[in-house]
């Protein structure tokens, strides 16, 4: 299994500002992903975080709004840029590990509220 | 649209009873995974069932998979108040590179 930590756990931000969320995994990671969960909804994949190259974004998500970095195998960041109240969501990172390449483990999430 | 659709959307049972929820999907999968989420927190991985498997058990959990019907079920036996949570199925599609598509979730309330 893998233990995934995220920082911050929650934040309240003003409209127009940006927030960077960090994700750290404690074991060898093959894939890392970022998801959004809007209030009362299920999870939607934002992008796959690729080590050393640009992230692969899903339809409806763009790099200018959600820039992602993955400088090494076990760490990634997601920035929510120029925030609006519609960005209020839980943001979760996940990872698959070399020990169990199919099982996807999730971090505790970052609860973002935009005023 | 979401790959997985879950049913029911909400379920209320008494402690000790069994809870069953279903997940249907639309296209071929590598595997299907079930997760639990407590009160908007992180997801806890419960069980993974591969496309060539029909049933798996883990403690009080039993998962079935019927690829001909493109459906899966999660059974929680002898439920406890601590099982109160939202449960999500997620499909790992063939040729999708481990990307998961989530169902809408089932909110389970176990009353003591």
How does this structure look, described?
The complex is a heterodimer of chains A (115) and B (112). In chain A, a hairpin with a 2-residue loop joins strand 9 and strand 10 (100-106). Chain A has 115 residues and is mostly beta strands. Helices cover 0% and strands 57% of the residues of chain A. Chain A has strands spanning 4-7, 10-13, 19-25, 29-37, 43-49, 56-57, 68-72, 75-80, 89-97, 100-106, 110-114. The termini of chain A are far apart. Chain A is globular, with a radius of gyration of 13 Å. In chain A, 37% of the residues are buried. In chain B, the strands form 2 sheets. In chain B, strands 2, 4, 5, 9, 10 and 11 form a 6-stranded mixed β-sheet that branches. In chain B, strands 1-3-8-7-6 form a 5-stranded antiparallel β-sheet, with no helix packed on it. Chain B is globular and about 45 Å long. Chain A binds chain B through residues 1, 4, 30-31, 33, 37, 41-45, 48, 90, 92, 94, 96, 101-109, 111, and chain B through 2, 30-31, 33, 35, 40-45, 48, 50, 88, 90, 92, 97-105.
Give a brief outline of the structure.
The complex is a heterodimer of chains A (about 120) and B (about 110). Chain A is built from no helices and eleven strands.
